[in-house]
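Quick note —
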Amino acid sequence: MLERLFGSKTRVKLLRLFLTQSNFYYVRELVRLTNSHIHSIRRELKNLLEIGIIKEKDQDRKKYFKVNENFILYPELKILITKSRILLKDKLKEKLERLGQIHLLILTGFFVDLANQTDILIVGKLNRKKLKRVIESLEKEIEKKINYTVMGLQEFRYRSDLTDNFLYNILENKKIVLINKIKNIKT
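Predicted structure written out below.
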């Protein structure tokens, strides 16, 4: 069973989606969300159904699929997906620290399953060209576009003092703070 579980990129993409979002999806939607071929999606859905990780329902002449939360390994698989994201965060932090001086590094948006204007907020001074390469590498790895914001410390303090709506949404909502060297900032 485990050999069938992690045998393809498409399967991993589907597992990531199903285990982080408890929604029903139809086939074409899964193709779009995972950026995969329809034949791969159908093949992997069949495998996941046979194993019992997902369940299906028919509605309006369409088949919809959702994670089966009663699957015996559901909690462990969910933890595994979460831990893989933690490894990704640690690797990202390490790469970004090499690019310059970072005062504040916050992950939001994609990293915490929250709709936000940005996925990464970086306050500091770093090499923008190298940063772009690191982000592009991350995007390839997770196969998702990452929105990121970089600002200097002075700009951050100014916008923070003004209670800037963009910063307020980041600081007051769900987030992961990887680096915080700024005094008097609630994170």
